[in-house]
Specification:
The complex is a heterodimer of chains A (202) and B (425). Chain A is built from eleven helices and no strands. With 202 residues, chain A is mainly α. Chain A folds into two domains: 105 residues, Cytochrome Bc1 Complex, Chain D, domain 2 (Orthogonal Bundle); 80 residues, Cytochrome Bc1 Complex, Chain D, domain 2. Chain A is globular, with a radius of gyration of 17 Å. The relative contact order of chain A is 0.14. The N terminus of chain A is likely disordered. In chain B, helix 1 runs antiparallel to helix 2. Chain B starts with a helix and ends with a strand. The chains are: A mainly alpha (202), B mainly beta (425). At the A-B interface, helix 4, helix 6, helix 7, helix 8 and helix 10 of A face helix 1 and helix 2 of B.
């Protein structure tokens, strides 16, 4: 075994172990194949950043997102329910197992937080909007996401804005209408504030 | 902060939208921070909340209860704790097919094809059993929540949100299915959120029975909503069979009496233990089972029940448990299970979510005594592993289907799996 293979093997083993930890919830340890997912994910990191931590404001980080969220969104790109010209061709040829494996890989990565930090005023205003919308009900107590619901804390701000605007315009895929409904009450300024607040959450 | 005046205005709009609790929060905030000026112009009307959330009290807007979404990409059975599944002695369960994404309603073709619908996706799958191996095919796509399926004399009927269609002779050309022919259209004119995915069943009268649910959790429905209807597939003429039915996603006819029985989901957000979801028997046309005024036959709605009485309405045949979410229901007429299972009902329980301690996530067996009174006991259990967990379960039964050999299929939309239950003495 050469050193490259050894390192790759080690990374794969660590990724699997991390996935097991992440998945060790009440429904038992049900790891998809994160190592296989890592192989498939090589094409993703060109835009989504090394190990899924994006450094581009318009591109979302995938690292540390719930696996079920990543898999569901990839499926929706593949099935044409979530429309995106850049993502559609990548998702088109992925099998169901590929989706689960890629999701398991990115879910197991640690998010390197974006450079964006919100100033105190924005943070306070953003926190107030988030509280009124009760974002924590679905996105979790610390907005780290759960099940099919995305992590918001530390997500790229331009990406968040685009999604919120999409929900407000009823053009963004929405499984149950929750986000489309919530976004109606947001002004453009609110969206700006909320996205900057969420991106800056540590 | 940039543009703070317009920000404050929109925050006021938000507070109105979020209701009394949010308004209280704003007042508390206002004490500690800058007072908020009244808006110069009225805020835009907010969109309706999603139907699962509608009808919460101000206090409940802070609830952490939420529905559970399926793993829409499916999960391999090799990763699931199948050994937790329990059945009465002599029964056996196995994975019959997997990779059937969000497997919900089941229908059996004349040649043995099992057709599978879904709700969040847009497809109909076919599962073909040849020599003990199952092949899973996506045969129809780009449909609008094709949850309801029925099969008769070579024709597959599909109930989407907005229409019911037929695919004649489909089993002869699964790889190149015939074009859809419309039986009835315009069933979803509002295109709003609500309980508008459908269950579909073919009655002994040759007509197609289906539900149109309520537009929200607890609202006054229009005259086609919160009802069970039937349509004649030959003429497209529709009639209402029963009203006051919040949402029925399972129905079948008693093999001897030929009466229609159906399951019904009661409203959420009253309490953990009220109201019960219900099982109903239709003895005549134009029955009304009470929604939104009366639930479970004896519980006036806290809001809409004022000035009304449950005596105005028809009572359910049985209370099945609060928030337990009864879905597919069929009578068993097969020869494989022991004789005492003859004419029993199997009901797939998909819930509960709107309850701090979860129950259900099983298949129940319902027997009728000589007077026709139902009693219920668990048949298939083990999906529920942590009644306080989030999620509390690793699988969710949706529909049951009796096969020609008498075995029972159970669909699980959470994992995209179909199980087969068989019996051997």
């Amino acid at each position: 075994m050469n050193i490259g293979d050894f390192v790759r093997g080690l990374v794969a083993a660590l990724a699997s172990a991390a996935t097991l930890l992440v998945f060790a919830g009440p429904a038992a340890a049900l790891a998809a194949d994160a190592a296989a997912g890592m192989q498939k994910a090589q094409v993703c990191v060109a835009c989504h950043g090394s190990e899924g931590s994006s450094v581009i404001p318009a591109i979302p980080s995938l690292a540390g997102q719930p696996a079920q969220f990543i898999a569901t969104q990839l499926l929706m790109f593949r099935e044409g329910k979530r429309k995106d010209a850049q993502m559609a061709p990548f998702a088109a040829n992925l099998s169901n197992a590929d989706l689960n494996n890629i999701a398991a890989y990115f879910a197991a990565q640690k998010l390197t937080l974006p450079a964006t930090k919100s100033d105190a005023t924005t943070a306070e205003a953003g926190a107030r909007i988030a509280k009124q919308l009760n974002c924590v009900q679905c996105h979790g107590a610390t907005l780290m996401g759960q099940q099919h619901i995305p992590r918001l804390a530390g997500q790229q701000h331009e990406y968040l804005k685009t999604q919120l605007r999409g929900f407000k315009a009823s053009t963004r895929f929405d499984m149950d209408g929750q986000m489309t409904s919530d976004a109606q009450a947001l002004s453009d300024a609110d969206i700006e504030t909320l996205a900057n607040y969420l991106a800056g959450l540590r | 902060m940039r543009n703070s005046a317009s920000h404050r205005q929109s925050v006021v709009g938000l507070a109105r939208f979020a209701g009394a609790v949010a308004a209280t929060l704003l007042i508390i905030n206002a004490g500690a921070q800058t007072p908020v000026a009244p808006p110069a112009t009225p805020a835009a009307a907010p969109a309706a909340p999603p139907s699962w959330q509608q009808g919460r009290s101000a206090e409940q807007t802070k609830s952490t209860l939420h529905p559970f979404a399926p793993h829409l990409t499916g999960r391999p059975s090799s990763e699931l704790p199948l050994d937790k599944l329990k059945l009465p002695p002599g029964f056996k369960i196995e994975v019959w097919a997997e990779g059937v994404l969000e497997a919900r309603s089941l229908a059996l073709g004349d040649k043995g094809t099992v057709f599978v619908g879904n709700r969040n996706l847009s497809d109909v799958y076919a599962v073909i059993d040849s020599g003990g191996k199952r092949e899973v095919k996506k045969i129809l796509k780009d449909l609008n929540s094709p949850n309801g399926l029925a099969f008769s004399k070579g024709t597959l009927f599909v109930a989407e949100r907005h229409r019911i269609t037929r695919y004649d002779g489909i089993e002869n050309s699964l790889d190149n299915p015939p074009a859809a022919k419309v039986v009835i259209d315009n069933l979803d004119p509002s295109k709003q959120p609500g309980h508008f995915w459908k269950f579909l069943a073919l009655g002994p009268d040759g007509k197609l029975y289906f539900n149109i649910g309520s537009p929200g959790n607890i609202v006054v429905p229009n005259y086609t909503q919160a009802a069970i209807h039937r349509v004649d597939p030959n003429t497209g003429v529709m009639e209402t069979i029963a009203q006051g039915v919040r949402n029925s996603v399972g129905m079948d006819w008693h093999p001897k009496t030929r009466q229609l029985w159906f399951t019904n989901h009661a409203r959420d957000w009253i309490s953990d233990d009220l109201p019960n979801d219900t099982l109903h028997r239709v003895t005549h046309k134009n029955m009304n089972f009470g929604y939104p005024f009366c639930h479970q036959g004896d519980l006036p709605d806290p809001e809409f029940g004022k000035g009304r009485t449950c005596r105005e309405f028809d009572a359910p045949a049985a209370k099945l448990g609060p928030h337990i979410a009864p879905l597919g229901m069929r009578f068993y007429t097969g020869k494989m299970f022991p004789a005492e299972y003859q004419d029993n009902m199997f009901i797939a329980m998909h819930g509960s979510w709107n309850r701090s301690t979860k129950h259900g996530y099983n298949v129940m067996r319902v027997t009728l005594d000589a007077a026709g009174k139902p009693s219920m006991k668990p048949f298939l259990e083990g999906f529920l592993t942590d009644e306080k967990g989030d999620p509390p379960m690793w699988g969710r039964p949706v529909d049951v289907l009796q096969m020609r050999d008498g075995a029972l299929l159970v669909s699980d939309d959470y994992n995209g799996i179909i199980y087969r239950i068989s019996y051997k003495k």
